[in-house]
Amino acid sequence: MRIDIITIFPDYFAALDLSLVGKARTRGLLDVAVHDLRGYTDDPHRSVDDAAYGGGPGMVMSPQPWGRALESVAGGAGDAGITAGRGDTAGRGDTAGRGAGAPSAGRAGGAHPDAGRRPRIVFPTPSGVPFTQRLSRELAEQAWLVFCCGRYEGIDRRVLDAWADDEVSLGDYVLAGGEVATLAIVEAVTRLVPGVLGNEESAGDDSFSTGLLEGPVYTRPASFDGRAVPDVLLSGDHAAVHRWRRVQSLLTTAARRPDLLARATLSRDDVAVLEAAGVGVPAEIARRMAQ
Ligand code: ADE
Question: 2-190, which class in CATH?
Answer without folding.
Answer: alpha beta
